[in-house]
Amino acid sequence: MNVNSPSPPARSAPGARAAPGGSRAVGALVAVLCALGLCLALSAPARADSSTGGDLQIAQTLGDRDLTFVLRRVTGLPGPLHVDVLTHRGTAPGTLRLGTVPTGVSADRAAGATAGTTTSSTSVRLGAEPGSYGGALRIDRAGPWELVVHDGSRTARIPFVVPAQRTSPPELAVFAGFVAAGVLILVTLLVAVRARRGGWVLMPAAGVVAALATAVTAALLSASLPAPPAPGRDVDATQDNVADPYAVVRPVSSDHSRPPAALMLAPSTTATGRPVTLRLHVTDGSTGLPADDLVVHDGALMHLVVIGPTGQLWHLHPVRTAPGAYEVRLRPTAAGHYAVSAEIARRGGGVQQLRSGTGLTVTGAALSASASASGKDTELPAALVPQGPGTRTVDGVRVRLSALSPRAGAASTLTARVGDTSSLQPWLGMIGHMIVVGPLDRAAATSRTRLGEAAQGADVWAHAHSMGGEMGSASMGSGPMGSTSMGAASMGSTSMGATSMGSAPMKKEGDMGSAHDMGDTPTHGMDSMASGSMSGLMPVNGDSPADETVAAYGPDVSFVYAFPAAGYYRVWIQAERDNAVLTVPYLLRVAPPTGGAR
Known about the structure:
Strand content: 25-35%
Largest sheet: 7 strands, antiparallel
Mean pLDDT: 77
Number of helices: 8
Structural class: alpha+beta
Radius of gyration: 32 Å
């Protein structure tokens, strides 16, 4: 043996050969952890879709009380349902009994056994002062429910839906991506330490990158994806999306081929000054069965408009007593004919405006023909005396209507200044409502004993909404919310107009408007209209719109409407101020279209 021969090189320990790869893996791990922290920070603002829908606001005319019920969103099951009852000025004090009743079919036999029975109840005592009075009930499952309201003599049944609390698919993708990335990080560390070749570490590291890319993409897209179809509004609450709001993800579109509903008014007679209960039945036009798929729109299941012989207008919200059955209490103030119209919205069928073919006739003493012909203002309350644009006082509030000379077929802007401060409250989801009936001849439009009869046969009934509102501002928002109108032979068309500019000198109070002399004050131009905001009224990302407890809108309320034909129109503008709904009547004369025959 050659003792001078060099000794063999010492054998390296296991993993020493992979040391350079291990160093690279550690560096990659640090980078991945930094990226993971950044991704978590970026994905934090992403909103979850598991709690869709906001508070439900629904107006109800319960006996002589005009109430607004606000059902606060249920955020956990089982959990409380907070109900606020908003009263208006003049609401009689008393006690309401509230109860919750589950409806529909449940997959859980134990839960289904209680369908149709009251599971929770509470009492709400209404005070003499207008304001908000609340109570809480218990909800123990998702799906369709009814809020049963009893005032001691009558019962209202308000349908509502509690969405199931489920994790949205984008959220699942985010969680799965981050969990997979965490697991693959551990695998990467193990491979980096145990593998003899540094290249093996690239495989799990690539999986980490792919998992993080999936999680980040889902997190960024989750905030912009549309909400799932709402049970009870877009899809059938008794079948679709009850247990899982993401079970039906198909685009939901209105079925415009559905036939319109029919409105039947049960026969009833009454005398002047005596209350009468109007019983209404809504049936499907194709089957004749009760239509029980009405959805809340503009803060009510049904908007009932009644026009009396003297020009008094009632905007009521009948209570639901059974499937397709509604009733409301009316106290007529004069003898004569009362025209009745109802506006509803059906699931998948859109908004429809229905006319009662019979109306209501009230017996008793009416204004004499001589008094009606003499035109004495003393025969009617000042608030019912018809007059053109200008300034008038209703219930102690100064209201000024500005309207450029309207012409048939062209969009007209009507602006009412209600009071002088930004103190208007949202009512039925809007700052202002406008009811239009016509065209009428001058004798019928100015009659103080036969307006209900004239309105019964009028070609056009329209319900237009204000163009939005900006909180704490005297200017109104941009973009008309739209209006629904109904001709003599058509149901519920939707029209949207454009704003107009210009100004004209104001006529003195009491003058009748005409095609060439109807007064007006300067109207907001396009610049001021575009500067408004709908943010104070429209819900965003599942948030709820402002309710009647907020008084920070106006004082200007603007409407856009295209009068379809020339003639005289009776117009009623409604807005809420100081917890009281003001109804201001006007008389407008609409000129023929440009170049048209008179």
